[in-house]
Design a protein that fits this description.
The chain is mainly β. Helices cover 11% and strands 29% of the residues.
């Protein structure tokens, strides 16, 4: 018995903006890559939606990571930069047929500059229900950037500008 052919039940229902974005992505992918699907790297990783807020004296960073397993998420701090990275895998088997796929899959990465005086011990991370929450203790009320005075640049003698 021949396998049943499926037709897309959403054919004609996709809104015009979504379709234009899909076509634009397809064209730019064709122009910049080899034929066929390629693996994403940190250079072209997607970035999760993130909220950064102050809660008392603490800085709280919340990143949405639906469909990502805790074991596929990494949080690191180096030279005052917090890095949230990992990978979202597509779960499928031989019977899976996608009619449309708009969620990013593959590697993701988000870099957030923290105040200078933050140490590793000041940072805690917790993950659950697709939400990563990173708390930077004491990070909300650190001094802001130091302003540098700008002087008028003089014209070097004997050289026209």
């Amino acid at each position: 018995m021949a396998p049943k052919r499926f037709s897309n039940p959403f054919h004609g229902v996709v809104d015009m903006i979504t379709e234009m974005n899909r076509m634009s992505d397809t064209i730019s992918t064709i122009e910049t890559t080899q034929v066929g699907e390629r693996e994403r790297t940190f250079a072209d990783a997607w970035s999760p939606s993130t909220d950064i807020l102050a809660k008392g004296r603490d800085l709280v960073i919340r990143a949405e990571l639906p469909g990502v397993k805790e074991t596929d998420v990494s949080v690191s701090l180096a030279h005052g930069v917090l890095v949230i990275s990992g990978e979202r895998h597509r779960e499928e088997d031989d019977s899976t047929i996608y009619y449309t796929s708009e969620r990013f899959m593959g590697s993701f990465r988000r870099e957030i500059s923290l105040p200078e005086d933050i140490d590793d011990e000041d940072v805690e991370a917790a993950f659950g229900d697709g939400l990563l929450e990173v708390v930077v203790h004491g990070g909300a009320h650190t001094g802001g950037p130091r302003q540098i005075a700008i002087k008028k640049r003089g014209r070097p003698r004997g050289r026209p500008l």
